[in-house]
């Protein structure tokens, strides 16, 4: 059985921080703040190891359900977002996954065989 990790049309992204796993899942692209400038990783990207600087790590999830960890005030919280569920505040229908953003202080990223592993310090 083919899994999302085996799909050559997507990337498997893991975003790790000292607080724990921030995100893990299939994505269509990842844009990172490299020390030599911003760059985007797409499926079938060449192997890469790069340092990251202050800026935004953005990615487009493929799944209709997105899970991860974040902060609310000073507390760490787990979150889950289901595409198609209305936003309680606006009544918006999220039938498509939306771009996700993490503000970074620094870190590094490894890209290899359609896998992207980013170890980061968040802002």
UniProtKB/TrEMBL annotation:
<dbReference type="GO" id="GO:0046933">
    <property type="term" value="F:proton-transporting ATP synthase activity, rotational mechanism"/>
</dbReference>
<dbReference type="Pfam" id="PF02823">
    <property type="entry name" value="ATP-synt_DE_N"/>
</dbReference>
<keyword id="KW-0813">Transport</keyword>
<keyword id="KW-0472">Membrane</keyword>
<dbReference type="GO" id="GO:0045259">
    <property type="term" value="C:proton-transporting ATP synthase complex"/>
</dbReference>
<dbReference type="InterPro" id="IPR020546">
    <property type="entry name" value="ATP_synth_F1_dsu/esu_N"/>
</dbReference>
<dbReference type="InterPro" id="IPR001469">
    <property type="entry name" value="ATP_synth_F1_dsu/esu"/>
</dbReference>
<feature type="domain" description="ATP synthase F1 complex delta/epsilon subunit N-terminal">
    <location>
        <begin position="13"/>
        <end position="59"/>
    </location>
</feature>
<keyword id="KW-0406">Ion transport</keyword>
<comment type="similarity">
    <text>Belongs to the ATPase epsilon chain family.</text>
</comment>
<protein>
    <submittedName>
        <fullName>ATP synthase, Delta/Epsilon chain, beta-sandwich domain protein</fullName>
    </submittedName>
</protein>
<dbReference type="InterPro" id="IPR036771">
    <property type="entry name" value="ATPsynth_dsu/esu_N"/>
</dbReference>
